[in-house]
Amino acid sequence: MPARNSGIAARLAGAMVACGLVLLLALGSALAADGVSGRRAALVIGNTAYEHLAKLPNATNDADRIRDVLERANFEVTLGKDLDKKGLEETILGFLRTLNDGDVALFYYSGHAVQVGGHNFMLPVDATLATSYDLEVQAYNMSSLLEYMRETSSLQIAILDACRDNPFANNSYYVGQAKVAVEGKKGLASVAPQDGTLIVYSTAPDRVALDGNDGLSPFTGTFAEYALKPNVEVRKLLSDIRAEVIKRTDGRQTPWDASSLTSSFFFVTRQNLLIIEDMREVRVPPAPKEVALRISPPITSGNAELTISFTKLPDQGTLWLGDQQLSLDSKISADRIEEVMLKPASAEMTGDEVRYTVTTDSGRSASGIVRVVVDAQAVAEAPVKPALAIQPGEEPKPAQPEQAKPILVAMASDIGTGFAAMPEEVVRSSAPTGWLRLEKRDPETQVAVDGQIVSEGDLIKAEDITKLRIRPSLKVVSASDTEAPVAETVAMAPQTNTGKADTSTDGLEVKPIPLPADKAPAKPSVRTVVLMPAVKTVAPAPITINVAVSVNECDTLAAEPLDVQAVADGKLPNDIDVPKALAACKAAVDQHPEVARFKYQYARALYAEGNFKEALTELNAASDAGHVRASYLLGRLYQFGAAVERDPSRAIPLFEAGAKRGDPYSQYALGRALVTGLGTKVDVERGMAMVTSAAESGHTYAMNMLGGEYFYGEHVKKDDARALKFITESADREDVFGMVLLGVLYRDGAGVQKDPARAAELFEKARANGHPYAGRLLGRMALRDKSADIQTVAGWYRESAERGDAWAAYFAAGLLQENPTLRRDDGEVARLLALSASHNTKDVSADAKSDLGKVGNTVVGKEVQLALQRAGQDIGDIDGKLGSRTREAANSVLGSDAPRAPRDLLIALLRKEWIDSRPRLDMLGS
């Protein structure tokens, strides 16, 4: 898909004649996925206040300056300053959320960055780089970010004003499975861009950039001065910037770029729209004393300066502007064109013609003609000067023409629901006429007309206001935003009992949109767009559009953490308020059926309710519509055989799709499958790289897996220190799996001083927060150290078994066999063994199934009957004898393919019962 330029100015320049007007404008390209072309999103990061590395005095100033420039160039900007690693992860995630299938994605970075192993890494302000293991935990690979940008946009630009000194505190670092020496490495590595990508470096490869001493770096200061020059293609722009930076630094710094662009790109494209009256006929009676030509003022986009010259003077008279006679050499301001008069040379004038040319300050021009026709039927014009209405004793006052009234429009929009249309009632009544100019837009708001993004200064036909669309930024409304004083906006749109607007507010014509009670937050964030009449008047009447922006309740109740397509931080499955989420998300799906995010979040609420059939329907719909987290969860269901037939191979393409978009959950799941060979061919190197990318984005499960892999050494070389680095990072983020793994290290003294008390403390904290097998670990350690009674250990085992830990169920069954007095009933051992077998867990489920074979047939039969009874089936007496009635009940619960062997049937029934209990699948291994 070709890159698109913003504004109507991206259209092919040419001349058109329509409704007596000459239009010079440029016309558009293919539309983006949401039907709007020209969308732009940018990530701008500046890091100054480094805690352990040298501070960079200008980096945050650079970021602020670039943010201003890009907002003026119609980018939706995500800004981050002085970010630690968590802040960097969150800011990048916020940026990825704004990228959904746009046109141009841009990344600007000012701060410390390093090259290691041919990769460039940006460093957050809390980075130390003190050990060989720090880079992969503390830094962020810029190539990963470029890959995510490439999946969601047609043109990508990276601008890197980094590498200002050498921050290395160590001489080698791990990158993947390799340990890379970095001695002598300076600056950034030159990376070959893929098609449609432009990478701009503030200095040449392997060279160090200068900080600058005037508040901005030499490169950023120059870029900011040049980038907003209209109609300069980016490659020409960069050449000009390069020459200027070389000049300003006396040759010490040479900006560099690597391009694989396949189309042109302009930061600013001025809308080449010049509108004049191509033909005017003035009919006058015989023997006029003077003729007012009343030429309509020309209109141009971008507030360009216009001058008018005359290319043909009248044959039978002269042209005058006030007391000045005009000649072919005269140039007058377009603002005074209406004042030009023709004075006939004699009373016998038979008709005449005047020709003129309008020229913009950029050199564009268009010509018009005024024909004066003498007509005996014509009515003499009123005096040129305004009539005076004089009462005795009063000073003369000019008659006042009726002024147009300003229009205030109130709209509401939920974040992430696309471009909102202008209210129909505004379109139907009091619609303006002529041409309008986009005078102002909130930087976090994009405006489109007829499927094309428009910029400040662009012109819009008044009748095209029906095609005007507004989209708020795809960002979460922060607490500070919701404190904005917006009561005035609401007060300007009072409603009567009939629902009609009261238009008596200080002469304003108010056209409000009544908001439903559930869609009108008390303190919404407001985004403002202002349209002005293009023709300058003494008292212009603006159209002010205030958009009350809020987060849909479905997003606040059912979004998922780290979802790259969410607009809220999200909730874990067991934190969802199911009744509220179901109602809110069903309403959101009904109101916005085109938004895949709502389908996915509705599926989460349905799953939390236990309505797996409907959840699966919504999940498939969201996945088909391109929601990557929906694809991830669908893949997990195929891995587990939950709500669908188990088929791990079907999960792989679903994970692949999400991983390309930068979804850390998908990257982790794909990497785990590749490392273990679950549903796909084993590829440890690629799998570990995928998991590393997920960890880089802050996914603690990925950190845990990396820690476990380096600790156990099953698939990669064992490295206790490397394991400790990942595991500690996860535990510090309050991840229960990180706590458990760190507890294991303290329990065994692996890489740390052995400390059983610290291990028990970590296991207990993880258990209390829902970890599935922390209780089993506590129990095993307590039995070894005799630190807890056997009844407490049995309780821990049961809890972990209920959470889905096959080992805990197996150990619990063994403990109860050795201690019959602890059993809750005679069938508990059979249930625990069947539950353990049902999870199909390596190294334990087969043993559990074998031990289940040693349990008496009657006990197994009774457990089958009890399971069917708990499922709502009427199976008669609980006697352990399985017959046709049991078979029919089992088929009803499981389907027509219910296993015939009693033990297999019990395993299947307990599996379904466990799934129906809505377990935390996200907390279980595959």
Automatic annotation (TrEMBL):
Domain Caspase family p20: 38-167
Signal peptide (residue range): 1-32
InterPro entries hit by this protein: Caspase-like_dom_sf, Caspase-related_regulators, Pept_C14_caspase, Pept_C14_p20, Sel1-like, TPR-like_helical_dom_sf
Pfam families: Peptidase_C14 (PF00656), Sel1 (PF08238), TPR_19 (PF14559)
Signal recorded as keyword: yes
Keyword Signal: yes
Protein keywords: Signal
Alphabetical list of Gene3D superfamilies matching this protein: 3.40.50.1460, Tetratricopeptide repeat domain (1.25.40.10)
PANTHER family referenced in this protein's UniProt entry, alphabetically: MUCOSA ASSOCIATED LYMPHOID TISSUE LYMPHOMA TRANSLOCATION PROTEIN 1/PARACASPASE, MUCOSA-ASSOCIATED LYMPHOID TISSUE LYMPHOMA TRANSLOCATION PROTEIN 1
Protein name as it appears in the record: TPR repeat protein
Species, as recorded: Aminobacter niigataensis
